[in-house]
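Re-running the complex after MR caught last week's input typo. The corrected sequence lines follow. Everything else is unchanged.
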Amino acid sequence: MALSNEQLERYSRHIILSEVGAKGQKKILDSKVLIIGAGGLGAPAALYLAAAGVGTIGIADADEVDLSNLQRQVIHTTPDVGKAKVLSAQETMNAINPQITVNTYRQFVDASNIMDLIADYDFILDGTDNFPAKFLINDACVLAKKPFSHAGIIRFKGQLMTYVPDKGPCYRCVFREPPPPDAVPTCRQAGVIGAMGGVIGSLQAMEAIKYIIGKGDLLTGYLLTYDALKMDFRKVKLPKVSNCAVCGDSPSILKPFDYEQAVCKV
Amino acid sequence: MADYTIDETVDITDVVCPVTFVKAKVALEELEDGQVLSIRLNDGEPVQNVPRSIKEEGHQILKLIDNGDGTYNLVVKRITLEDQT
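Corrected-run output:
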């Protein structure tokens, strides 16, 4: 389908890029991206993906907007406090770009629902804030052969990597098992600088866009770490682990499962 | 007599800069290498800028025809660019 004059104008800064063009923009318009977590990472990622014209964006989160979220979760505003995060996020995305479809999933993502949730999407963004969810998303995406972007942020640090089926290691190749509950503080306990979500969540959106248009090199086989205080980006090469429990040669994980959630004591 | 055949036409008089160039570029993208596009564009800024931008993209300008009604027809041959896949 030809792009309308309005679409040519809205996306002109994309279309004018030789790596994107009308073909690439049409790929973006036809794409479906699922964002799990409408928080510090999901908020900026959702804003950029909506603005870019990703035709269908799914957003999953069970929480309501809290006043303490607004320091970093830039898709929500002060009048949204108390509202379901997915609805607040949907309103903002549709205000930016009324031409896209936003599907909301107001639920905790767990082993019982994740396979159905990711089935319809081309690319998944992990914007969660805990290890059980990160391993669950990894395992489900590996099993369903879905590419995804992992990211995590805490204090003044952030990291991300991209998994593409049959290309490079998965999150479990690198981290094997979640740490024991409470061995690592959550960002609720430890704090996080608000702009960190903007940096890392925007990089996740960038990975999604590059995957969709099929241009450039993704962070497959690499972990990018960012230390804001030292202003240091490091790109660490990661080997694929042949005995990985989920993506290895003889995997023991054949369906997604839930780890116990750490109880937050704050 | 013209030594070319027009394969496709596009009218960019209904949009303003920078969408004029974007619309022309998109129409060129959809052609095959060597095909010819006739672009109807307005006098003024479009006729000053669009031909230059198209030339910068590597396409070949064959002719600019003054329609005498404040519009022009710019005839362009598509040249395949590097990294256009």
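None of the earlier attempt is carried over here. The helical segments of chain B are 19-29, 45-56. Strands of chain B lie at 8-11, 36-42, 60-66, 71-77.
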